[in-house]
Amino acid sequence: MRTTFLVVFFSIVLSAPAFAVVYIGGNYGLSAYSAQPLEKYRIHPKGTSYGGFLGVGKDFVGFEGFYQSFPTKGEIKHDGASHDITTNATAIGGALRFGFQSFYLRLGVANFDLRQSLSISDEASREAADKIYEIKEKARKNGVLFGGGIHGKLSENFRYIVDYSRYQITGVGEYDTISIGLSFNLPERFLALGKF
Amino acid sequence: MNLVIQILILFIATSCLLKDESPIETTSTSLDLIKSGDIIVSNLGNDSIVLLDEDGSFKEVLVDSPTDGTLIFNGLTYDSYTGSVLFLNDSTTGTLDAVRSIALTDGSVSTYLTNSNLNGVLPGFARLSGGDLVIIEGTTAAEMFNSDKIRQGAPFISTLTTAAADIQALQSGGFVVCSSATANTVRTYNAAGVVQATATSASPTPSLGALAATACIQDSSGRIIVAYSGATDAVRVYTSSTMATVAWTFTDTNVLTTPGKLAIRPNGNILVVDQALNHIVELTPDGAFVDLLGGAVLATPLNLIVVP
What we know:
By secondary structure, chain A is an alpha+beta fold.
C-alpha cells in the first residue's frame, strides 16, 4: 500500500509544474503518545517527532505526501519496579494543506508502522504487562491526521512553520506533535531536471 | 502575527504536551481470573465451587462435578506456597480422594496431592505457616504432608478429636480444630500437634448450651472465631488463642440458622455461610451485621475463603 501511494504521489508531483508550485520541507519537534490502555495507568510516553513533506499547491490549497517518525518512551511501574515503555511509530500519508496569510490547516490520512515494547526482562512478567498495556510489538494500522499552525516568509522561497498536529491511529491511540520546520518552494528549473 | 504571541502559543502548547504524572503501578496478577478480595464458595447442593467478587456477585464456576452426590468439597484454602487455591476432592467412595488446586490465572484445576491414606471423610485441611499441610482424615485423625508432599508420621495424629469439622492455621505455627462433639469442641494445637487450649459452647461463659462447632478460624488480631450450630446458631469470638474469654456472640435466626464455615475479609469483617438459607452473612469485627451475600448462586454452601 505504501509503495502504491508513493508511485501515485510522485506522478502527481512530477506533472505539477505546469499549473502549480512544488514545495518541500521538513520539521522537528516534540511528540506525546496517548492510548486508552496507557491513560488508565497515567502513562504518557514522550519523545521527538521529525519528518518531511513534498507537495504541490495552487492558490491556497496544497496536496502533499509526508513521512513522519515518532520515537517516544515512557515510564511504567509493574510488579514493583520501574520499566520503560517504547512506543515508536512511523507514518506515510497524504494531506491537504489550506494556507492563509499567517496560518494554515492540514488534514490527511496515513498508514502507520507501530513498534512497541517493554523493558521487562522477566518473561512471565513482560507477557502479563504486554496484555495490560495492550502492546503492539509490530503492527500496521491506518489513521488520520489533522492540525494546523502558523507560518511566515523568511525569503522568496523559504517559509518557517510552527505546527501542531494530531496523528490518530485507528483503534490504537494518537500522537500529538509540536514542531518547527522549514518549507522551500522549488524553482521551476529544479523540476525541469525531471522532464528529460 | 506578532512574534511574541507566536512564541507564547508555542510555549503553552509545549507545556500541555509535556504534562507529567507518576504512573499507576500494575501487577501481573491484575489479569488473574481470581483476584485478591474475591470470595470462593464450595456448594454441597450441586457439587460445585463458585467464584464471587468481593461484593458477592457471581463471576465464574470454578469446579462443577459431573457426578453430583459422590463428591464433597469441604476443604478449601488459599495456599501461599503454591500461589493457588487448594480444595479437598472428597469422594464418597474414597477412590478419588485428593487435594486439588485451582490456578488463580485462569481457574484451571489440577491434582496437587494424592495418597492412599486419604480415603475417609475429609472435613478440612490447613497449610501451616511452617509449610506442612495438615488434613483431617476420617473425622478423627490428622494426616500431615510437608511442602514436598511427603507424608509425615503414620499418621501425624491418630486421635485428633471426635467428629472433627474444621481445621485452620494459627499465626503461632499451630492450628485450631473444631468438632461437632460437645466436649472439648474447639482445640488449639502447636505445630507438633500438642493441645494448647480447649473451649466449648458452654465454657467459657456465657454458656450457649451444648452445641456442635462447624467452623473455627483465627483473625489477624489473634482472636479465635467459632461458628456453633444446634439449639442456638451463633458466631462466637474469643479474645485470644487461649479461648479463656468471650469477646462477643452473634445470633440472629432471621439470617443465621445453620452456620457453616468461616472466612475473614482483609478489613477484618467475618463471613459465615448459612447452609439452610443459602447465603453468606457478613459481620464486622465487633459482631454487627453488615450484609447478606451470594444468595442467588449458593446451594447448601459448605465452605468459603476470601482470596488474600
